[in-house]
Design goal:
single chain, alpha+beta, Lipocalin, ten-stranded antiparallel beta sheet, 10 strands, globular, lipid binding, transport
């Protein structure tokens, strides 16, 4: 049975997993290979996080590819670049351990809020949020740390 058929079955009224199916369909909108095309205020965001100068310089010129997929009941986000490759695998709404691209040890939770994929990282009493949303076929990622906001635009590769 194809994943889409399973999702359709889960979404049928009265089916016990209709919420799961609905969430899976929302996540499916993000499932693609995405290439960074534009970035605003990312250096200020990295600076606020405490990322060092040399790493920020690399971060500012690196154009990562983000691959989002569903594997069983987990969502997988792979980030690939000439600087570093990372992969996280998680269940929506469940906390997991994450080592960030800049090597912070975080407790993270990723959940759906309407049609947005909200990623919360917590470490050392601090918190940053990434909000991923699809607009006009593009993925817009808004990163917030304190009062610093950066926006990154991705297009399907």
């Amino acid at each position: 049975m194809r994943v889409s058929q399973e999702l359709e079955m889960e979404a049928e009224p009265g089916h016990e997993h209709s919420k799961t199916g609905e969430r899976a369909r929302m996540v499916e909108a993000f499932c693609a290979t995405w290439k960074l095309t534009d970035s605003q205020n990312f250096d200020e965001y990295m600076k606020a996080l405490g990322v060092g100068f040399a790493t920020r310089q690399v971060g500012n010129v690196t154009k990562p590819t983000v691959i989002i997929s569903q594997e069983g009941d987990k969502v997988v986000i792979r980030t690939q670049s000439t600087f570093k490759n990372t992969e996280i695998s998680f269940r929506l709404g469940e906390e997991f351990d994450e080592i960030s691209v800049d090597d912070r040890n975080c407790k993270s939770v990723i959940s759906l809020d309407g049609d947005k994929l909200v990623h919360v990282q917590k470490w050392d009493g601090k918190q940053t949020n990434f909000v991923r949303e699809i607009k006009d076929g593009k993925m817009i990622v808004t990163l917030t740390f304190g009062d610093v906001v950066a926006v990154r635009h991705y297009e399907k590769a």
